[in-house]
Write a structure and sequence with these properties.
Blueprint (H helix, E strand, L loop, with lengths): L5 E6 L13 H14 L4 E6 L6 H6 L25 E5 L7 H10 L3 E7 L1 H14 L3 E10 L4 H15 L4 E2 L1 H5 L6
Parallel strand pairs: 1-2, 1-4, 2-3, 4-5, 5-6
InterPro entries: Isochorismatase-like_dom, Isochorismatase-like_hydrls, Isochorismatase-like_sf
GO molecular function: hydrolase activity
Keywords: Hydrolase
Length: 182
């Protein structure tokens, strides 16, 4: 992993995804992002925005995440927004929208570090898409969770292990050890 070409991508830590299975994430991610930014590294946040007529609405009859406050980034991470390299709004599971692709290319990032919600969907899909685009990708196993519970989080990590390889799964202390001292 090339820490000098890496970006921290905080996936969908939004009010609507916070429950008893994910409420521990915002303070942990805020601390992680603070340390990452102190090392001069960029942070990008994503927001999932469902829209009328989306595949989620048409095929799953799922109409959540169409308006605030559900779509808002959680208050614990709100201080990151003004200084974030970008906030990417996305209409589906993956971080890789045209805006994200352009941002990565313009910044020259080769390595993506992912954390957030949900391990089994948006984090996983973004990790696999990064892998297939040739990026080095790392999923922070202790800084992501599933709003469907720990068993679903664990299942997402099993699939990630299979699809992006065991080196793609690390912990926050592993990542922070790679940063220059603060």
């Amino acid at each position: 992993m090339d820490i000098d070409s890496a970006v921290l991508v905080v996936v969908d830590v939004q009010n609507g995804f916070i429950n008893q299975h994910t409420e521990h994430l915002p303070p942990a991610i805020a601390a992680l992002a603070g340390r990452w930014r102190a090392a001069g590294r960029p942070v990008v946040l994503t927001r999932y925005l469902n829209h009328p007529g989306s595949p989620f609405e048409r095929h799953l009859d799922w109409t959540r995440f169409q308006q605030a406050p559900e779509t808002d980034i959680v208050s614990a991470l709100a201080p990151l927004v003004p200084d974030a390299h970008a906030v990417i709004d996305k209409p589906g599971y993956t971080f890789f929208t045209p805006a994200a692709d352009a941002l990565i290319a313009a910044a020259g990032w080769t390595d993506l570090v992912l954390c957030g919600i949900a391990t089994d969907s948006c984090v996983l899909k973004s990790a696999v898409d990064a892998f297939e685009r040739g990026h080095t990708v790392r999923v922070l196993t202790d800084a992501c969770a599933s709003d469907a519970g720990p068993a679903v989080h664990a299942a997402g990590l099993v699939v990630a292990h299979r699809l992006i390889g065991p080196a793609g799964l690390i912990t926050t202390p592993d990542l922070l050890a790679r940063l220059p001292p603060a």
